[in-house]
UniProtKB/TrEMBL annotation:
UniProt key word Membrane: yes
UniProt name for this protein: Polypeptide-transport-associated domain protein FtsQ-type
Superkingdom, taxonomy of origin: Bacteria
Cross-referenced InterPro entries: FtsQ_DivIB, POTRA, POTRA_FtsQ_type
Domain POTRA as annotated: residue spans: 56-125
Coiled coil residues, start to end: none
An individual GO BP term: cell division
Keyword list, A-Z: Cell cycle, Cell division, Cell membrane, Membrane, Transmembrane, Transmembrane helix
Membrane-spanning intervals of the chain: 25-49
A cellular-component GO term for this protein: plasma membrane
Subcellular location: Membrane
A Pfam family hit: POTRA_1
Organism: Phormidium nigroviride PCC 7112
Principal cellular location given in the protein's record: membrane
């Protein structure tokens, strides 16, 4: 019994020693794993922080899908400061900010690893008019305010849009096979301070675009009298109001006016009261007026 007890004590000592060795081995393994993970994380951070993974200039932003806006114009809308870590860029946030600007209807931003770059794919809102602050551009400040308007009132500088050939245009009679028609920029002109009519523009343009009467110019300089230059003559609408949509409808119904009255004999068409449109004739010069009275 004494011998058995002595053997048992010896065996227990060996087992305790073995357990201590196993615990030390496990602890060493955990320490090594932590060191290895830290080293890998540090190496990854060092790798990410290398200049090779920076968006250092706007040329590293590739633009796709633009047909009207120039690449430079789209890049100017991307809210990035350079240099910028490729890994710190949030594509979804960039896309949402782009879509909040006037000319961009839809945007998708993708990060590219090789080479480090961004791809920005956009769908544009097309320009519908030229906007300029005054009829005569007297200063550089006025010239800088000339730009393009889209249907929602989004504004872009005059050099932003470029005329391009339509990719999906059908070939009509008389067109040359193998060529595509030129998609020209709009010629409709809107004159006046942008802040004066921007809030009204989307609804106003919606009504304007449905007209069969061609409108060449919209003068919004005087907020109390909106003036249109159209193919049937100059039209005075008065201030923009809830009646404006009805005024445009009345204008469209007057499209046959040139067949009834020579447009050169019309000073302007008064639609301030759409229920009672008036055609104003030019005033006679004083000398001619006196002569006419003498004859009578």
């Amino acid at each position: 019994m004494a011998s058995f007890g002595a053997v048992s004590q010896t065996e227990l000592g060996r087992r305790r020693q073995k357990l201590r060795q196993q615990r030390r081995a496990r602890l060493a393994a955990v320490v090594w794993q932590m060191l290895a993970a830290s080293a890998m994380a540090g190496g990854l951070l060092w790798w990410i922080a290398q200049p090779a993974w920076l968006i250092a200039r706007s040329e590293q932003v590739k633009v796709e899908g633009n047909q009207w806006l120039s690449d430079k114009a789209v890049r100017s809308l991307v809210p990035l400061s350079y240099p910028q870590s490729l890994w710190g860029i949030q594509p979804q946030a960039l896309a949402e900010k782009l879509e909040s600007t006037g000319p961009i209807a839809k945007a998708k931003v993708t990060r590219n690893l090789f080479p480090p770059s961004l791809t920005v794919e956009v769908a544009e809102r097309l320009p519908v008019a030229v906007a300029q602050p005054t009829a005569v551009l007297r200063s550089n400040s006025d010239k800088e305010k000339v730009g393009w308007l889209d249907a929602r009132g989004g504004w872009m500088p005059s050099d932003s849009y470029t005329a391009v050939r339509s990719q999906n245009s059908s070939i009509g009679p008389g067109s040359i096979p193998g060529t595509q028609p030129q998609r020209s920029l709009p010629t409709l002109k809107v004159i006046g301070p942008l802040e004066q009519y921007r809030a009204y523009w989307p609804k106003f343009y919606q009504g304007l675009s449905g007209l069969t009467v061609k409108v060449f110019e919209i003068n919004w300089q005087d907020p109390n009298n909106l003036i249109l230059k159209t193919e049937i003559g100059t039209v005075h609408l008065g201030p923009y109001s809830s009646k404006t949509a009805e005024q445009l409808k009345v204008l469209d119904r007057m499209r046959q006016l040139p067949k009834q009255l020579d447009s050169s004999k019309i000073a302007y068409i008064d639609l301030k009261n759409p229920a009672s449109p008036m055609v104003h004739l030019p005033e006679l010069p004083p000398s001619l007026e006196s002569s006419t009275r003498a004859q009578n």
